[in-house]
Amino acid sequence: MKAPNERSLDEMRAHLIDKAADDETFRGQLLSDPRTSIEGELGITIPEGLAVQVHENSAEEVHLVLPPAMKLSEAELSRAAGGATSGWCCY
Q1: Has residue 64 been placed in a domain?
Q2: Is residue 38 a contact partner of residue 44, using CB atoms and an 8 Å limit?
């Protein structure tokens, strides 16, 4: 397995999904305590203030995850104009 800083977000997501498909105990932990489960499995620290939610699709319910809106709010525009970063954009 690659070191945490060598894996892309897609690689980390795929690893978590694969493990949850194969390991019912991990799946339950991921649903009940996503932050701790993800940090432990991937060897990373999730920044404070970043909420993590895990949803499970079923025959009766399907979840669609949208990426963040790319339109900046007035506050974000003001920070960008001043040279500050919003923290939501990755390189």
Answers
A1: no
A2: yes
